[in-house]
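Incident log, support desk, overnight shift.

02:14 A customer reports that sequence design results differ from what the structure should imply. Their input is reproduced verbatim below. On-call engineer (initials T.W.) acknowledged and began investigating.
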């Protein structure tokens, strides 16, 4: 197979984003003008979990700095320099931050999806990071993007390779949507029963001082058999133990993709077990995030930035997990210390009181949500295998080792 080496400048135009005009700012209220920040770019796609928008007036000032469907965008400043995303139809016309650049391809020479996959991998990102310059934080100049070399086969081969990799990502995305629906269903059921107090039979229960008769407010420490931070790991890629960090806890789910290996023995009380609730307890941005261990883990623990809250044996663990996941915003607000060094102290977690229903209700909730938790775990594992398979294929496809 013939592959041509060419620079991005040979196949595309590269243009930077635009800083907001002085006196203008972003807003969370939705408008017709979404604004793509560097933090929204990564893993080959735009992740708009915390969306921001521009007013009509602000957009008019920078209306020439927009992206269109099929553009490839790349971050050019900061710790995530070299992150890449392909612009989908829904973000066509969105404004782009000055901390990113767009690559507008000549589609007679290069397929946008193919280029996205060629650029969106760890090896290429490390190359971009290497050529970025700047003492305080690296900056990837537009001229360096233009001169960056890529290898291209014939256009029909590009499209075949892209289609193969898209098939993997489509399966992963479908699983993510299923996970989101399952998790949301269980969370809404928890809120319906234990926050809005519309539990089965609520019509026949007296409310006394805002609390249903037979319910009680109880500190988390009284419902827990263990409440402590994790261990200080000795990182070792060949180590036999897995250590869970703050990056593994996101959107009320535990994923082990970003867990690391370590070699130091640890107290078995700190071993992550089914039913353990894990709370991010240091720093900003991730502090207060909560997830629960829904499957037995082998030789796994957490690091010192994560707090383990283990429910008593007589406490239905899924009810306990969703009760603490419902407190994420409260945990975040309980952080103490300087802005970038905030700590969520374990005694503050233990002192926090939650409303405890009769055991028959918490058991019923546990049984109703157990299948969802099991399905979510299986889907997370399936996505891990799909991602691994795609990541094994990608470099072999991109260097022409495998033909399609």
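02:41 Re-run completed on a clean worker. Output:
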């Amino acid at each position: 197979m013939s592959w041509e080496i060419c620079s991005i400048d040979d196949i595309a135009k590269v243009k930077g984003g635009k800083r907001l005009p002085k006196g203008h700012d972003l807003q969370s209220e939705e408008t017709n003008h979404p604004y793509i920040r560097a933090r929204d770019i990564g893993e080959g796609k735009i992740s708009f979990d915390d969306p921001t928008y521009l007013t009509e007036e602000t957009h008019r000032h920078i209306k020439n700095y927009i992206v269109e469907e099929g553009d490839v965008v790349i971050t050019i400043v900061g710790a995530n320099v070299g992150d890449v995303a392909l612009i989908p139809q829904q973000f066509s016309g969105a404004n782009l931050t000055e901390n990113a650049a767009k690559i507008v391809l000549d589609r007679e020479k290069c397929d946008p999806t193919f280029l996205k996959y060629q650029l969106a991998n760890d090896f290429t990102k490390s190359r971009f990071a290497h050529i970025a310059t700047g003492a305080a934080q690296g900056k990837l100049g537009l001229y360096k993007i233009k001169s960056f070399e890529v290898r291209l086969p014939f256009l029909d081969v590009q499209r075949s390779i892209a289609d193969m990799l898209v098939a993997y990502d489509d399966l992963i995305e479908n699983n993510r949507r299923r996970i989101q629906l399952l998790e949301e269903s269980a969370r809404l059921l928890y809120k319906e029963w234990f926050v809005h107090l519309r539990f089965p039979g609520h019509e026949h229960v007296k409310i006394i001082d805002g609390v249903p008769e037979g319910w009680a407010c109880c500190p988390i420490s009284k419902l827990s058999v263990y409440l402590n931070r994790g261990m200080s790991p000795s990182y070792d890629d060949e180590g036999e133990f897995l250590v869970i960090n703050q990056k593994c806890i996101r959107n009320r789910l535990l994923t082990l993709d970003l867990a690391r290996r370590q070699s130091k023995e640890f107290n078995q009380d700190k071993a992550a077990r089914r039913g353990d609730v894990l709370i991010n307890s240091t720093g900003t941005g991730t502090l207060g995030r909560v997830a629960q261990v829904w499957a037995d883990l082998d030789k796994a623990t957490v690091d010192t930035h994560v707090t383990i809250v283990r429910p008593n044996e007589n406490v239905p663990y899924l009810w306990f997990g969703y009760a603490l996941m419902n407190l994420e915003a409260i945990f975040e607000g309980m952080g103490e210390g300087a802005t970038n060094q905030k700590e969520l102290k374990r005694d503050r977690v233990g002192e926090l009181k939650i409303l405890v229903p009769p055991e028959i209700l918490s058991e019923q909730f546990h049984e109703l949500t157990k299948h969802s938790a099991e399905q979510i775990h299986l889907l997370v594992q399936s996505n891990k295998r799909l991602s691994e398979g795609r990541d094994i294929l990608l470099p072999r496809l991109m260097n022409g080792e495998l033909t399609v």
